[in-house]
Amino acid sequence: xxxxxxxxxxxxxxxxxxxxxxxYAVKGFDLSPESxxxxxxxxxxxxxxxxxxxxxxxxxxxxxxxxxxxxxLYAGEGNxxxxxxxxxxxxxxxxxxxxxxxxxxxxAHMEGLVFLDAPVSGGTxxxxxxxxxxxxxxxxxxxxxxxxxxxxxxKNIFHxxxxxxxxxxxxxxxxxxxxxxxxxxxxxxxxxxxxxxxKVLSDIMLQSSGANWSLEKYNPVPGVMDGVPASKDYQxxxxxxxxxxxxxLAAEIASQSQQDTPMGDLARSLFGQHAExxxxxxxxxxxxxxxxx
Length: 293
Ligand code: NAD
Fold this sequence. Notes:
Layout: E1 2-6, H1 12-21, E2 25-29, H2 33-41, E3 45-46, H3 50-54, E4 59-62, H4 67-75, E5 89-92, H5 98-110, E6 114-117, E7 120-121, H6 123-129, E8 132-137, H7 140-150, E9 154-161, H8 165-193, H9 198-206, H10 213-217, H11 240-256, H12 262-279, H13 287-290
Parallel strand pairs: 1-2, 1-4, 2-3, 4-5, 5-6, 8-9
Antiparallel strand pairs: 7-8
Bound molecules: nicotinamide-adenine-dinucleotide (NAD).
């Protein structure tokens, strides 16, 4: 099976590398020469143009920064959709806006192609280890075709529903993650400011009704938990700027569907102020710092 891979950055690079390792013939394209060099070094074939990468591909995968770039690649001037073989499976793993995902699926369908939106969770560590979670939207048959390929890059592969449902799940999940991370940081900062040891407070809350993923797996207070970004000066992990991007996409869905998300809006404002204060490239659990006097 021939795979064309677009976007060999922090996520796409290691994802494509796992496909090469699994024995697929992978042709990669990226605008950044450094990404292409790194891809060649791990045994990938580098294409000079998107059309060259796509020629002869049975499966096309993209892992790009945003919806506009995805739109430009597939349906813009280059019109990649128009150059693919009929029935080619196109899997967009980028985190993008819902309307672009749905529009791309429609345009792909008009060209006789099959499109899935398949955003991921698990970050760069999950991409490198091949343990990502995929949230896939699209037809049953397309999902079944994609599954064996995705299985080389991820551990949990969920069929979320029809096209766009992958992006919807990703936005709902990340909005909730931002809310409970901010809430967890707020509670821990309140306890600490009043003399509580944050480790003791965390241990007790973990066995009480305040328990949640941020507290259990990703404690935001430095030194409470080994190996998490909070204990590494908030380096690595999931950047505040990327969380803000996802909160913006969630807000867009909320506004388009006239659904109120007051908690999501508040989280977006908190993380926005935090980024403006110069913390955009830190891990998102650094929101704890915003609560420290
Ligand atoms: P990145 O900036 O490291 O990589 C994006 C790559 O796309 C870059 O190498 C860039 O040169 C390339 N690119 C841009 N325009 C292109 C084009 N027209 N053709 C080919 N290549 C092009 O970003 P990333 O962290 O790898 O994120 C990629 C996607 O994954 C984003 O949608 C992001 O929201 C999502 N995501 C990221 C993480 C994470 O932890 N980094 C986690 C989950 C999801």
